[in-house]
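Example 3.2
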Amino acid sequence: MAVTVLYSATCLNGQRSGGAFEFQTGLSKSIDKHLAECCQGSIQEARESPQFTTGLPSPPTENACSSSPVSFTFKTRDLPVFQVNGGVLFAAGMTIDADGAPNAYGPKNRGLDYTTNARNASGWVALVTNTKGRPVIQRTGPYRGYYVSTTSLQRENIRDPRNPKKYLDATRIPYIALPADFAREFEITLGDFAAVINNETGRLAYAIYGDVGPKGRVGEGSIALANRLGIPSNPRHDSIPDGITYLVFPRSGGSAAKSITLNRINSSGSRLYRTWLTQKACITMTSTD
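Structure, written as tokens:
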């Protein structure tokens, strides 16, 4: 069943906020009411439109308060992406990323994720390696014996690449991963902030763009982000195919690499999201039950 949700300042002003995440109060129970308040007469048009499929659709032309999407091409599909009110908005699923966690990977698949996920055809891609190209093993600390897992966004004040604290711990920091070509297309840079929504529950969490994902795949978040959204978070076997909305704020990170903390992600994400909500534009989107 396709459920149409319309986001705008008018539609979401009733949401309760605070802490590490927010709930869009009553949204799932009164979708028609919110839609009617935002754009009268557009509800039935949207539901009957053949353009509406899983994820963000091309809105019906009759809906005067909709923003038209840009189509980003992947190998198997075209992803509709909205650029509105300074944000980049799209819908996808979520695979779970363990990169950066000090126990993400280890010899003999000992870590949170399968070791094979830390390499591609060119070799190791998510681990610190030595001069011989072999993964560096932690020799001290609580995760002694595990490899040092990396993220693309790194803490500039820690210079030793073998120090696990230089990278974003996927179990603690809510981050998203995006393909490099997708990020370039929409002028998104590492350290930019995002608001991520679980369409089924209305649960919202703030995140940072912290890792460059593989080309051709969009919709990836850290273990911490999945936990905040209330979705399964085991990187070995958990993922959801759709139902997650991503709102990324390009050029919002500034000097994020100097201070990457959960408090900063929440405060910056909340400020950006609230500012975005004060704008007048509406965005029509769907999720599928």
